[in-house]
Hints:
Elements: H1 8-29, H2 38-48, H3 50-73, H4 78-100, H5 117-127, H6 130-153
Helix pairs in contact: 1-2, 1-6, 2-3, 2-6, 3-4, 3-5, 4-5, 5-6
InterPro entries: Capsule_biosynth_CapC
Pfam families: Caps_synth_CapC (PF14102)
Transmembrane segments: 12-29, 41-69, 81-100, 106-126, 138-157
Amino acid sequence: xxxxxxxxxxxxxxxxxxxxxxxxxxxTTNLSPGGMITPGWLALTLVTDAGRAGLMIGVTALTFLATxxxxxxxxxxxxxxxxxVVLCAxxxxxxxxxxxxxxxPLLYSAQTLGFIVPGLIAYQLIRQPLAATAISTTAxxxxxxxxxxxxxxxxxLPAG
Length: 160
């Protein structure tokens, strides 16, 4: 798949679509699909560069495992748990970025939100059943992705 550049308007619409689908998912199933902004961001990442989405999934898994190990040593709950998970994701994503930026310089251009998203997903994986979170995140992301790609292919959304 050839990476596509999307305009800021299309990116905002992708995030908004993800929010709507996330809200519908939450209201109908009482499951958070990895956080409210996550599906929109993942769908945009799939549209622009699927490799980056795969990297985010890997960092999410590492964040989840690191947090589970940390919970064996430290009492984490509520806001402390959220802060620890997101901080762990940012540290891991930054480490991966420094390791890969020389070989893949365009992989991390303007990717700020991508440093937080793995933490949001890992946080929900810790709070909710693993399979339910993975399924809801995947379903809502794919729904957002399908609408975005359809809009781009039909010319209803501007591509950069």
